[in-house]
Amino acid sequence: MEEIQAGLRGVLNLIYFVLVIVTFLAWSFLCHLVIRNPEKRRAQFSKNVTFFCRIILKAFGMNLTVKNKPKDGEKFLLVSNHMGFVDILLMGSIFPLLFVTSNEMRETPFLGLLTEMGGCMYVERRSRTKILDEMKSIVTALQNGFRIVLYPEATSTNGEQVLPFKRTLMMAASHAGVPIQPAVVNFRKVNGEDFSLKWRDHLCWYGDITFATSLWKALTLKSLHAEIEFLEQIHTTPEDDRGLIADKAHSLISEKFVPVKGIAVPAVPPELETT
Length: 275
What we know:
Elements: H1 2-34, H2 38-59, E1 62-67, E2 77-80, H3 85-92, E3 98-102, H4 103-106, H5 111-117, E4 121-123, H6 131-143, E5 148-150, H7 172-176, E6 180-190, E7 193-194, H8 197-203, H9 211-219, E8 224-230, H10 242-256
Parallel strand pairs: 1-8, 2-5, 2-6, 3-4, 3-5
Antiparallel strand pairs: 6-7, 6-8
């Protein structure tokens, strides 16, 4: 019975989701036609994302608690852990942001169009030769007043840990004269239960899971309570060691990250056991 109810809920949510996305694309395309200035167009795209993310969260029973929300007008390069498109919806609902994603995503049917209409910035993760030019474009956007989201894990994860951070693009903050703003995303309750292996594939898009599968599982959920906490800002200069900066941001986020419950705890070698 529970599976039947989840299936019906998924179908209804899918219909609603499609309507919201079609409206989002139509409105953003209209903005694309009307607003000729590229910067103003991108700013409008980011506002559109926030508006429609809030609609989706409310419609699908996603409740978000935000801790230490930055002040209005404060500029920064936001870095966060990343588990899939659900945390993008959560982050995008807080305030207008520009997300950095990959050229592979841009070339993906449907998702590429979504990211274009969302004002995303693109990096070529398959090649290191363009990374400095890509960093310059992020620097320019930061200097123009945009808040930019960078996922330095460079992929979405299975909720077990925060992967090591890629370093170079994080230096865009120092070149733009803005701080790095770390933030941690945690899933607290799913359908009233703790975030465990039972619910992981409903919220985490990782490995070989297709977008369609991940989306369907998310749409069958009754409720989600998530939390985003903004952590201590990191102020840097271009001369700072990028490795140390990345490690500090990773440490701040890892300390606050709550992994999915139910994963096996690595055995402690006898020689490392303490009393």
